[in-house]
Structure formats: structure tokens, C-alpha cells
Amino acid sequence: MKRLLLTSLLLLAIISSMLAGSLGYYSLSLDLATGSVSAKEFIFLGEGTESFQTDALIAPSEKMSWPFKVKNYDQSAVTQTGLQYQLTITVTASKGKEAIEPLEVRILNSEGQVLNSLTGIGVFTVNSSFPLQANGQFHDYSLEIRWPEKGSNDIGYAGRNYGNTITVSATATQTPPKEG
Question: How far apart, in whole angstroms, are the C-alpha atoms of residue 96 and residue 162?
Fold first, then answer.
């Protein structure tokens, strides 16, 4: 009986010691490193669109030019990723009017090369990119609206019942990083 009582007391001492933590296991926590991430600058702006006109008048054999640019920087920062972009030019009949079907709309680069065009109404695009660089970049464009002189049917589009609306929009996305 003494043995049972002694064993019980010893078992009770071990259990109470474990609960009290004196026979616990070692534990250690370390802060090995701290880091953080911030979003990169992503800048894509248009400039010079004040050259675009509303209700501009045009006749056969005339043309007008609306220059503009896109760029990847502002006064305080340059985009920190490469980016690719698409210019979308949409030509529709103006509200309440019929389209001037012989009207040509072309987009030219800074060297005067025609990048894309259409006659009448429709949609066309131009794709380009800005590779990642420390310095800001820009691309100059010119939207050219021409009514080539084609002959006797031009008179059929004369007057205020005819007009085209031209819209230029741009979308930019980050260029995927190169593997490796």
C-alpha cells in the first residue's frame, strides 16, 4: 500500500509539474527578416487632344490633321514597367446624320508613315509599346481626315445632314516580365 501511495504521489507530482510547465518543452521564436512590397508606377497618358475639333467643316479635296501623343511619364514619375498599348479609332455617322462615305481617316506616326486607315465608317487599331527604361518615352501621332476628290457623287454628301464622328481611345497593359 505504501508503494501504491508513493507511486500515486510521484505520478501526481509529475502531472502537476507538467501542468505547471517545469517539465515542459523548449520553444523559441525568431523574427528572421522583415520585408514589404509596393506597387510599381504605371503611367500612360495622352497629350495634345485639344487639337481635336467638334463640328469641323470639310469638303472634297480638303484634309485636316489632329496631332496627339501618348507617353509613359508625368511630371513626377516614369512608369516602372514595360507596357504595350492599343489605339482604337472609331468612325461613325454623327448623331442624327448620315455618314460621309468617301471620308478617309488615317493615323500617321511621327515620320508621316500611315499606320492604318479606313474609308467611310468602321473601327481600326494601332498597336505599339514602351519598353522598360529609366527615362520617359512618348510616341507622336497624327489623325488625318481627308475627303479625296472623287468626282460627281461628292455632291451627294453635301450639307448638314452628313457628318462623321471620330473617336480615339487607348488601352495600355503591362508587358509581361521576361523569364530567366
Answer: 9
Model confidence pTM above 0.85: no
**How do residues 7-33 score in pLDDT, each as one tens digit?**
777 767 666 666 665 555 677 788 888
Length of the chain: 180
Residue 146, number of CB atoms within 10 A of its CB: 19
> Could you tell me the domains of the chain?
45-151+162-174 (2.60.40)
Q: How confident is the model at residue 88 (pLDDT cuts 50, 70, 90)?
A: very high
| Cα dihedral value 156, 157, 158, 163, nearest 10 | 160
Dist CA 44 CA 171 (whole Å)? 9
User: How far is it, in rounded angstroms, from Cα 47 to Cα 85?
Assistant: 15
Q: HEC string of the chain?
A: CHHHHHHHHHHHHHHHHHHHCCCCCCCCCCCCCCCCCCCCCCCCEEECHHHCCCCCCCCCCEEEEEEEEEECECCCCECCCCEEEEEEEEEEECCCCECCCCCEEEEEECCCCEEEEEECCEEEEEEEEECCCCCCCEEEEEEEEEECCCCHHHHHHCCCCECEEEEEEEEEEECCCCCC
Residue whose C-alpha cell reads 508606377 in the numeric block: 41
